[in-house]
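quick one
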Amino acid sequence: MPAPEVRIGDAAFIAGALATDFANEAHAPIVARQHFRIAIPGGSIADTCFPALAKLPLDWNELEFFWTDERAVPPEHEDSNYRAAKERWFDPAGVPPARTHRMIAERDLDESARSYIGMLIRWCGLPVKLDYALLGVGPDGHVASLFPGRPNAANEQAIVLVEHESPKPPAERLTLAMPVLANAGRVAIVAMGAAKAPVIAEALSQHDSSLPVARVLRRAARVLVLLDNEAATGVNSSR
Ligand code: 6PG
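structure w/ 6-phosphogluconic acid:
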């Protein structure tokens, strides 16, 4: 796989660079087939990046939104990844609700995982092919809700997985599996803050790292890594 494109700057630079990349990537699929399929995460990226994405001059009818992962709470809960996206992206941009395919995580998770798999296959084919997967990174190197050392992180067969023991609260979650994330046409990874520096340095320098962030970096065909200066400490010396 080609080396990931790594860009470093402050929060405003990261939000702008992500928005530019997103718009560039959306252009060709929208012209060719009138839809662009993206999966989005939760976490701080909603505050730092969704407002800039919401300002893009796109026809939001031509995007299909999925989630990389969701916490097992109702959609109006303050921990809901759906709620974060709705408040910071969909409502300000006027994204039609029919274009947002949320993970239903407030009901039986196994049943929700099965129905999400069916929906992903209907929209994205089999193997599931997203156009764009946006990912945050945990200080332990997790992406989506694939946590280091948990069986889900190593699952190569699944499409959507249920996590019952997430080390990051809440414990119960739904998540896309690694093969789906890694198969996206473009993977954008955003990491900000000093707590992320060690896992970012490891992921970019150790080719046998088993961290989920390292594995998606190695496997995805076209990766953009956006780091603030704190998260990038150690990147130059390790590359
Ligand atoms: C979630 C996420 C998760 C998140 C990272 C980074 O629901 O918690 O989707 O993968 O993106 O934990 O979160 P922060 O940017 O808040 O550290």
